[in-house]
Amino acid sequence: MLIYGIPEFRLPKTIVQNELDILKKMGVKVEMNFVVGRTRKLNDLIEKDGFSAVFVGTGAGLPKFMNIPGENLVGVFSANEYLTRANLMKAYDTGRAHTPLYHSKKVAVLGGGNVAMDAARMALRLGAEEVHLVYRRTEKEMPARVEEVGHAREEGVIFHMLQNAVRILGDANDCVTQMECLRYELGEPDASGRRSPVPLAGSEFLMEVDTVIVAIGNGSNPLISQTTAGLQVNRWGNIIVDENGKTSIDGIYAGGDIVLGAATVILAMGEGRRAASSINASLAGT
Amino acid sequence: MNRILKKTQLSAEVFRLEVEAPLIAHERKPGQFIILQVDDSIGERIPLTIADADPVNGSITLIFQTVGKTTHLLADKQVGDSIAALLGPLGQPTHIEKVGHVVCVGGGIGVAPLHPIAQAMKAAGNKVTIIMGARNKSLLIMEGEMRKIADDLIIVTDDGSYGRKGLVTHPLKELCEQSPKPDMAVIIGPPIMMKFGAETTRPYGVHTVVSLNTIMIDGTGMCGGCRVTVGGKTQFVCVDGPEFDGHLVDFDNMMKRLRAYKPREDADHQAHHCHLEEAAKALEKQ
Question: Pairing with A42, which of A20, A107, B180, B185 sits 20 to 30 Å away (CA)?
Answer without folding.
Answer: A20
